């Protein structure tokens, strides 16, 4: 067995174990990956020796090992998404002349992770570390629109889960769903006056290699300074930024759905 296929098979084992809630028998691993049992056992023995999988003899199953956990922890420490995204956000702010930011979903809120401010632009209530209800922000709506419907339903099980600001924002799951249908159809999310009176935002979601939305990228601008043509240019710039981050994360940008 050459080294290149072995590496690919080992990575496939890790990804398979990560997708499942609990450890798996070697026979299940072999079947799901289309590998011979002898090959599977050799892989598992080698990976166990390095700590990437652990054998549970009483259960006759294999699970992720400590080395796999250490890789995940190292990923968080190195903040690769922020490092990949920051130069893109800088280019987005320079290209548009407006403040740009990146958020991640944190429960029903969005957490602001990167802020690129443009000199002379209006001050914002958002800053790194600030949290706002996802349903009120363009970046949050962009992320929610890319989530599976069941996950959105789990996040917003009742009317009590919805928060309004300045009298804006959906107040029920059915209204939120209608908003998300529009977001998916047009390929971007937008809000006006929901966060700050007189300001609006347009946003798109960045996806990982599994098509999962990992971040929302937005541009915020004064409503009275941006006409329809300029707004369309801001949408294009924001989409470019989100799509480029998606590519850097190993994902594939999704084209807008036709209504």
Question: How would you sum up this structure in a few lines?
Answer:
The chain is an alpha+beta fold.
**End-to-end span in angstroms?**
50 Å
Please, what is the average pLDDT?
Answer: 87
Q: What's the count of strands?
A: 8
Oligomer: single chain
Main sheet strand line-up: 5-4-3-8-7-6
- Our estimate of the beta-strand percent is 15-25%
The total domain count is 2
Structural class: alpha+beta
What series of H and E elements makes up the topology? HHHEEHHEEEHHHEEEH
* CATH third-level topology of the largest domain: Beta-Lactamase
Helix content: 40-55%
Give the overall shape. elongated
Sketch the major β-sheet.
Answer: 6 strands, antiparallel
CATH C-level class of the largest domain: Alpha Beta
Low-confidence stretches: none
CATH structural architecture of the largest domain: 2-Layer Sandwich
Number of helices: 9
Gyration radius, rounded: 22 Å
Please, what is the CATH homologous superfamily of the largest domain? GAF domain
Q: What would your notes on this structure say?
A:
This protein is of the alpha+beta class and 259 residues long. The protein has two domains: 3-74, Arc Repressor Mutant, subunit A (Orthogonal Bundle); 79-248, 2-Layer Sandwich (Beta-Lactamase), CATH 3.30.450. It is built from nine helices and eight strands. It has a six-stranded antiparallel sheet. A two-stranded antiparallel ribbon has the order 1-2. A hairpin with a 5-residue loop joins strand 7 (199-207) and strand 8. Helix 2 crosses helix 3 (37-49) and helix 5 packs antiparallel against helix 9 (228-248). It is elongated. The model has no long low-confidence stretch (mean pLDDT 87).
């Amino acid at each position: 067995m050459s080294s290149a296929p072995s590496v690919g098979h080992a990575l496939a084992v890790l990804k398979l174990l990560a997708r499942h809630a609990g450890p798996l028998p070697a026979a299940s691993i072999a079947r799901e990956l289309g590998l011979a049992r002898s090959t599977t056992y050799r892989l598992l023995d080698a990976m166990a020796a390095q700590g990437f999988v652990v054998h549970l003899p009483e259960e006759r199953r294999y699970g992720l090992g400590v080395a796999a956990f250490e890789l995940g922890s190292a990923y968080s420490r190195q903040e690769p998404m922020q490092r990949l995204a920051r130069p893109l956000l800088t280019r987005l702010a320079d290209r548009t002349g407006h403040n740009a930011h990146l958020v991640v979903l944190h429960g029903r809120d969005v957490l602001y992770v990167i802020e690129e401010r443009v000199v002379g632009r209006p001050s914002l209530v958002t800053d790194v570390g600030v949290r706002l209800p996802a349903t009120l922000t363009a970046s949050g709506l962009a992320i929610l629109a890319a989530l599976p419907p069941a996950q959105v339903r789990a996040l917003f099980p009742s009317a009590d889960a919805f928060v309004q600001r300045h009298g804006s924002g959906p107040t029920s799951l059915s209204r939120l769903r209608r908003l998300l249908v529009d977001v998916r159809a047009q390929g971007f999310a937008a809000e006006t006056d929901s966060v700050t009176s007189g300001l609006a935002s347009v946003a798109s979601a960045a996806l990982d290699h599994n098509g999962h939305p990992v971040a929302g990228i937005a541009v915020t601008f004064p409503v009275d300074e941006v006409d329809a043509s300029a707004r369309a240019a801001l949408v294009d710039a924001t989409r470019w930024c989100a799509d480029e981050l998606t590519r850097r994360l190993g994902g594939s940008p999704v084209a807008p759905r036709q209504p």
